[in-house]
Write a structure and sequence with these properties.
Helices cover 27% and strands 23% of the residues. By secondary structure, the chain is α/β, with parallel strands linked by helices. The strands form four sheets. Strands 5, 6, 7, 14, 15, 16, 17, 18, 19 and 20 form a ten-stranded mixed beta sheet that branches.
């Protein structure tokens, strides 16, 4: 088994499993951990189960952006709440989450792209954002060392960033200190259903009784639900990221254009990534759900490259079982950590793109590179809702690359939802049944 560079060699959370608790959370990513923390603070006894390691998959492999800019209108109030919660959590963790207000900038190579940013800005009015359109001259003042190749930009000074591989493990430690039981290396094989309702979970180490279960399994969520006869059109795409060695500070915030994105880190390097490029491994679910994704593909703005087949063990691999019993090994035990290799060509290209964007600077050296599988849905917004077909189950999945930044707020929302409390936001956009109830599919912004 290989581990991402940010994980310690041995599991950190090995708590004994109780026979019963108030709430079981499947998945130790940012959504699961945040849900656990806020549910525990509300007085619930909470167990978090992860088949591999806390934060080992997409939650620590992302760009580290905490943004309101470019969000779907329904996500903007939630992302604003999340910015405040990140600041609070950073204080709780004594500054170890790497949270800072740095500003996010979307660079436009053409006036047409700039008009698209203006359209988003108009749709976001009323939320009190400080987002604004920058002219070419404004942009030169903001990024004096950058090449003069952009017509303008959309800029949000109050947007933030964190260090994912530090933040999510630290949040788990905070939750554990406050009484959450976290168990790594403990796969949930299935839901324990009694009289048509959730009565707990069946893990590889035995049953846990609980009338409330949250599924925050990222790329694995659809596979577990399909095992119980519930299908959602969730797929996963491979995205590539790298960290450079320390280089001169040419731009202190986070920015992207149509080719690549960057973010300054506290260690003096930059995190670089293709801005819209991802890869889809073709498997049974990818073929099954193609029709519902056609509208998103027709909208454009996403560079999704098909690959012939998913590697063995991946959620949508041809050989991955779709059915298994509770007393036999599940696919989640066969692939403890979804750890895709980054494509070498993209890794080699990114430092050159960075050097071209900032003339006079040599191409930075790559410190490390990795990839992650982003769980996506056809309208580019997540499902955060109770599952009517499996009473007692609440689902928070399909974060579409937004999960890290918006994670604390969705965690707070889910923690309230499982207690029967109001979410505090309009959750209609994120409802479970929108892909099957005849609703018109409206893709969110591809910004």
């Amino acid at each position: 088994m290989s581990f991402p560079h940010w994980l310690p060699d041995a599991p950190e959370h090995t708590g004994a499993l109780p026979d019963a608790c108030d709430l079981v959370i499947i998945g130790g990513g940012v959504i699961g951990v945040a849900t656990a923390l806020y549910a525990r603070r509300a007085g619930l006894s909470v167990v978090v189960l992860d088949k591999g390691r806390v934060g080992a998959e997409q939650s620590t492999r992302n760009w580290g952006w905490i943004r309101t800019q470019g969000r779907d209108p329904a996500e903007i109030p939630i992302s604003l709440e999340s910015r405040g919660l990140w600041a609070d959590l950073n204080r709780d963790c004594q500054g170890r989450l790497g949270i800072a207000t740095v500003g996010v900038t979307y660079l436009a190579k053409s006036d047409t792209t700039l008009l698209g940013y203006q359209d988003w800005l108009e749709s976001a009015r009323g939320h009190g954002l400080d987002s604004r359109i920058l002219s070419r001259r404004d942009l030169r003042a903001l990024m004096p060392q950058a090449a003069d190749r952009w017509a303008g930009a959309l800029h949000t000074p109050s947007d933030m960033r964190g260090e994912p591989w530090a933040a999510v493990p630290e949040l788990a430690r905070l939750a554990a200190r406050e009484g959450v039981v976290i168990r790594e290396g403990c796969a949930v094989r299935g839901l324990d259903m009694v009289a048509g309702r959730v009565a707990g979970v069946v893990t590889e180490h035995g049953r846990i009784r609980a009338v409330r279960v949250v599924l925050a399994g990222g790329a694995w969520s659809a596979l577990l639900m399909a095992r119980h006869g519930v299908r959602i059109p969730q797929l996963s795409v491979r995205a590539t990221v790298l960290a450079t060695e320390p280089v001169p500070d040419v731009q202190a915030g986070a920015a992207t254009d149509s080719d690549f994105a960057w973010r300054r880190r506290d260690d003096g390097g930059y995190t670089l990534a293709p801005s819209a490029y991802s890869e889809l491994f073709i498997g049974p679910d990818a073929i099954r759900h193609t029709p519902v994704y056609l509208k998103l593909l027709a909208k454009g703005g996403f560079q999704v490259v098909p690959r012939l087949a998913a590697p063995r063990g991946y959620p949508d691999a041809w050989t991955t079982p779709r059915r298994w019993r509770n007393d036999e090994q599940s696919p989640f035990e066969r692939c403890r950590i979804l750890d895709p290799a980054p494509p070498a060509a993209k890794v080699a290209q990114l430092p050159q793109q960075f050097a071209a964007a900032f003339p006079g600077q040599p191409a930075p050296k790559v410190s490390r590179a990795w990839a992650g599988m982003i769980d996506v849905l056809p309208d580019v917004v997540p499902i955060v809702d109770h599952c009517a077909a499996l009473p007692g189950l609440t689902v928070a999945t399909g974060m579409c690359g937004h999960g890290f930044g918006i994670g604390p707020a969705f965690g707070r929302i889910v923690a309230d939802m499982v207690q029967g409390k109001p979410a505090g936001h309009d959750m209609h956009r994120f409802r479970f049944g929108r892909f099957a109830d005849g609703s018109r599919l409206t893709p969110g912004p591809n910004l």
